[in-house]
Amino acid sequence: MKARSPVDAKTARKKPAKKPTARRLRNIALYYLKRFPSSASNLKAVLRRRVLRMTLEDPAPRAEAFGHIDTIVADLVSQGAVNDLVFARGKAYQAAALKKPARKTQMKLAAKGVAKDVIAQVMAETTSEESEFEAALAIARRRRLGPFRTTARDRDTDRKDMGALARAGLSFDVAKKVMAYDDGSAES
């Protein structure tokens, strides 16, 4: 078999995009769910992006395909393949195990389209003040902030460290506790 030259590859015709039929979109959704857990809203967004890519050249079937998306996702929710509560619990427990701040987990779940009441329920189950403080200590230790700083601390570095902890999703009170933390290893 003869290898194609780069010139031939550039001039070769591109295959036309496949039409976004209901069956094709359902298969795309199922394949996506095999690889990634998802909320219903996130799955709709994934399918919408796929439809937009499939209909770049011919936007005529776009409206019909968007109608299929709602039906497909509703069917997957009714079958239990997509469950926002299970998705949120999994993400929250994973974040807690990795010592991630609760506020950051809440923001990520909201970005995935999980309802506020579901987020509140899951966060009440998975977080506590102790776990939030442990997450804050883990962040400070990992980034060498506050009491874990290897260089001398002064007012300016503490202010910068407080900002870094706030950007990591920690509340002011928790960040203050971290900055005041003393693990006893500084004794000589």
Characterization of the model:
The protein is mostly helical. The chain has 10 helices and no strands. The mean pLDDT is 88.
Quick synopsis:
The chain is about 65% helix and about 0% strand. The chain has helices at about 5-10, 20-35, 40-55, 60-80, 85-95, 100-110, 115-125, 130-145, 155-165, 170-180. It is elongated and about 65 Å long.
Outline the secondary-structure elements.
Blueprint: H1 6-11, H2 22-35, H3 40-54, H4 62-79, H5 84-97, H6 102-111, H7 116-126, H8 129-143, H9 155-167, H10 172-180
Total strands: 0
Q: Give the overall form.
A: elongated
The termini sit apart by 75 Å
| Number of alpha- plus pi-helical segments | 10
Radius of gyration: 24 Å
What about the largest sheet? none
* Strand portion: under 5%
Helix/strand-derived category reads mainly alpha
Poorly predicted tracts of residues: none
Helical coverage, percent range: 55-70%
Q: What is the chain-wise order of helices and strands?
A: HHHHHHHHHH
State mean pLDDT (0 to 100 scale): 88
Features of this protein?
188 residues, mainly alpha
